Amino acid sequence: MAFFMSWEDNYRLWQAADLTQDLQAELTEMAKDQNQLVEAFTQPMAFGTAGMRGVMQPGINAMNIYTVRQATEGLAQFMDQLEPAKKAAGVAISYDSRYHSQEFAFAAAGVLGAHGIKSFVFDSLRPTPELSFTVRHLKTYAGIMITASHNPKQYNGYKIYGSDGGQMPPEEVDQIVAYIEKVTDLFSVKSLTQPQLRDAKLLQLIGEDLDQAYLAELATITIRPDLIKKVASELSLVYSPLHGTGKMLYDRVFRTAGLTQVAVVPEQAVLDPEFATTLFPNPEFPQAFELAEQLGKNVKADLLIATDPDADRLGAAVRQPNGDYHLLTGNQIAALMVNYILAAKQAMNQLPADGCIVKSIVSSEFATKVAANYGIETRNVLTGFKYIGEQIEQMETTGQGHFLFGFEESYGYLVKSFVRDKDAMQASVMLAEVAAYYREQGKTMYDGLQELFEKYGYFQERTVSFDFPGLSGQETMANVMAAFREQPVQAVDGVAVTTTEDYLHQTKTLSDGTVTELNLPQADVLKYYLADETWIAVRPSGTEPKIKLYFGVVGKSVEASQAKIDAYQAALAPRFKN
């Protein structure tokens, strides 16, 4: 199958192929919609540093068993070129609760096995952070996670992890993609069955053994176990796994931390690939918390926690004085955790002089200001948790710097480095400890957030997405980004831009024309700093056909900050018309 063929030719090849029964039925249904056929058969799905993600359906631009085999064949051919010891280390594989996730996981193992590569596959679904941990614990060469994270039910995805437990670095991904692109016949990829894999000792099921090892590390997250023990009987939490992998471990995670009053949202503790209780299983959306809020009011919970289906992202809501719940932003959650971690470590004389937190360039300066108050450095990296993982690796290798916390505004946090990706299980424990910290003082986390606002300023952030669907979407997105560079932003709503950072050209340009070099990797991102401490960033998504516009402001009140963002958004929105 050659991808430069017309969509009609590709479609005819799929019609003639011996497809699985479900895909054959879907292909017949797709014949009624030519637009859907054009989308599915014109060009292959992009495979980037975050892997691939798409709608589950037939086609070269979709998630199905054939595109999963194709991607795995690319990884296997790449591993064939490694020195024998690295290839023999094998690949760890996990998956979430979505349709076909387990099927895709064992399909990947079958392709690897055909190349003599051993797979360590979980016996049932497990969180993405546990997969990251497993790669490190078993010292495998790579890891595969089958998940579409917080996307709607029709999506699935495929992520590759490197030997450090972080997502595979761009250099290796580029080489893997080159091999993937050579696999032009998706239907001839060799694959072994599970019995064949077991007979050849190329498949090892894992589960409770890795759970116990991961849970042992999670038991070290709490800084002050005495604090949790002191308020455990009165600190009430509500947890929702949003129909996903968090269900597998949450009970033991919380009990190990000493948290005894944890109620789970029963309707959302069902492993349901339909995500029946929420349109979007995304813990940043208020709708995902509706059932948690109902239960929270019944049990008078101090804190509501929800994790996305693969349990790498965490969202939270805190009780307000009137009994209603306030949904925290990812940046506010990070600021609260940073403040507690640094305060607790300082009180115990455990705050290292060379400590630092790491965050993405599109995350708030709120936590940066908090950290600076404790004399702690903040390092900025490109979006993608693998870059936070690289900083951790650098610190541990050179001995320069001591990792204390990492986060992205998109609800991803890491407390300890035994995982090298965002870890909602770690974050759940730490956020509960923060709640205990305020409970001991007779306060709520909402009170704590107001205290931080009053001390550091009213930081507010917003992310706006502009969608560019269809085959022309990528071209339109490229044109929008090109226009930003050809017609530089010099002021927004009358406020001057003092500095422009272009991560594609790796330049930092001041308003007086001075240009210096940026020392971060190349990426298609523009970031503007305004005269009033505002920052604005423009960045195409790495997994979806959209451009994201980020705002970070600080003001003397919530209202003043929101007014700033509204004005800046209105001023820039016309640039995204397609």
From TrEMBL:
UniProt domain Alpha-D-phosphohexomutase C-terminal: residue ranges: 498-554
Presence of keyword Signal: no
Gene3D superfamilies listed in its UniProt record: Alpha-D-Glucose-1,6-Bisphosphate, subunit A, domain 3, Alpha-D-phosphohexomutase, C-terminal domain
Catalysed conversion reaction: alpha-D-glucose 1-phosphate = alpha-D-glucose 6-phosphate
PANTHER family documented for this protein: PHOSPHOGLUCOMUTASE 2B-RELATED, PHOSPHOMANNOMUTASE 45A
Keyword list, A-Z: Carbohydrate metabolism, Glucose metabolism, Isomerase, Magnesium, Metal-binding, Phosphoprotein
Species: Lapidilactobacillus concavus DSM 17758
EC number assigned by the record: 5.4.2.2
Name of this protein: Phosphoglucomutase
Any Pfam family the entry gives: PGM_PMM_II
